[in-house]
Design goal:
mainly beta; UDP N-Acetylglucosamine Acyltransferase, domain 1; 4-stranded parallel β-sheet; 2 helices; about 30% strand; Trimer_LpxA-like_sf
């Protein structure tokens, strides 16, 4: 109910920090549903998540529930409807274009689109 009031504000970042996410200063999150597992998410400084971008730190594989942390390093931009799956690491200064999928355990090199 209060999610619509927190969207796009620094209060949303504070809420996710309370829930266990490691979020650096100067991060903009546009939606309360952008994380599924905040306690497994690490986000560096100057990161932007556009509307509809999602970070998912869990998978169901062969009827097993697996949790793996996701790391997004400094100065990355995750555009709308991009999805980052568990175990992925963005090395920094990355730009994920709309509708991009970063697969499980992928390593995205620094300064790439």
């Amino acid at each position: 109910m209060i999610g619509s009031y927190l969207s796009g504000t620094q209060y949303l970042v504070i809420l996710y920090r309370i829930l266990g996410a490691k979020i650096a200063p100067d991060v903009i999150l546009h939606n309360i549903t952008c994380f599924t597992d905040p306690h497994l998410t690490t986000i560096g400084n100057h990161v932007r998540l556009h509307m509809g971008a999602h970070i998912q730190c869990h998978t169901f594989e062969q009827r097993l529930f697996k949790l793996v942390p996701v790391t997004i390093n400094d100065s990355s931009v995750i555009m709308s409807n991009a999805l980052i799956l568990s175990g992925a690491q963005l090395q920094g200064q990355n730009r994920l274009l709309p509708w991009t999928l970063v697969m499980k355990d992928d390593q995205v090199s620094a300064k790439t689109n």
